[in-house]
Amino acid sequence: MDGSFPAKVEVLVVGAGPAGLTAAHRLLKAGSQVLVVDARRRIGHPLRCAEATEPGFFEDLGFEPRPTWLRWTLDNKLVMLNRPRLEEEVAAELARLGARVEPATAVTALGPYERGLRSVTLATATGPRRLQAHLVIAADGVASSVTRMTGLAGRLRAHELGACLAYRLQRIRLKHPRRVLMHFAPELRPYYFWILPSGPDEANVGVSILAHRGHAAALILESYLRRSPELAGGTIVERITGFVPSALPLPTPYADGLLVVGAAARMVDPVIGAGIKHASTSARHAVESYLAARRSATAADLASYRLRLEPTYGHLHLSLLRRYTNVQPPPSK
Ligand SMILES: Cc1cc2nc3c(=O)[nH]c(=O)nc-3n(C[C@H](O)[C@H](O)[C@H](O)COP(=O)(O)OP(=O)(O)OC[C@H]3O[C@@H](n4cnc5c(N)ncnc54)[C@H](O)[C@@H]3O)c2cc1C
Prior knowledge:
Number of domains: 2
CATH topology of the largest domain: FAD/NAD(P)-binding domain
Mean pLDDT: 93
Helix content: 25-40%
Distance between the termini: 72 Å
Bound molecules: flavin-adenine dinucleotide
Radius of gyration: 20 Å
Number of helices: 9
Low-confidence stretches: none
Number of strands: 16
Order of helices and strands: EHEEHEEHEEEEHEEEEHEEEHHHH
Structural class: alpha+beta
């Protein structure tokens, strides 16, 4: 075993997005030994999000929001996060609280659950490493390899994925700089554009489109910008890309020695692509289930996690149904 990595950890959290950071913080507060790994070289970077969420996210996360974590406040009690700053600084806080946080470290293999442990292979900057974990929390996002390695889920197909492209636009002239605009374009139904102001004269403006049409996203978004008097002529200061699941959440988001949280469990609203709050809420429930089971990590003892998710699952199921039935009447002449 490599000297710089522990041979055994109580909880391995895979992914340092909103779900992984929430789970890690809650576990630390309960006295667990936590290792957080993330494939990204720098936690929080690059940004793959439009950053709008509910303030309740901070309650799940367990930190008071710092001014540097917020870009702007919106109507309907929504906030625009600064996710790169937030994730970087929360990861640093977790390290101060005793977690081990390893960027540039990816889980590449996960063994079966044997004698109460999962063996894990990690790819690190200095080569492969192996360790054993009593519990693995899969917070590895929409492309989750952990759920595939453990057979909990297959790969999402093109019609179950939204390909997203967003621009951070500056020097625009918004009539209502705190108003969220979602535009469900008839030609793209059930996909959509969004305008999420992130300051008096700036916004995150994007499109989500079925993944197999992802190559057309830039063309479609730019034509949308040209047609909008409020956005035309703005300066693009950042390009943001990524995928969102547009499928039902995992029927069984747990197994022996494993809990699946956030986008890895497909907990993202399939109509509007909102997944930050679902990520933090599912991570909170996952940790609560583990602690309620007195840190037993057998599937039978972790099953209460699924029950705790019932309201979230109800919402996501209804939302997917709406996605397929939201047939709007043709415009009246
Ligand atoms: C363009 C775009 C705009 C969006 N806008 C919004 C929005 O405005 N509001 C909203 O609520 N939601 C939005 N979403 C959805 C939201 O970003 C996700 O639902 C949310 O980030 C999910 O959080 P998570 O922690 O589950 O996963 P993620 O934030 O995806 O984090 C997963 C982490 O796991 C790491 N990882 C992956 N595989 C491995 C591995 N094998 N080993 C180690 N680490 C690994 C990744 O590097 C990543 O850091 C948007 C998504 C996109 C693509």
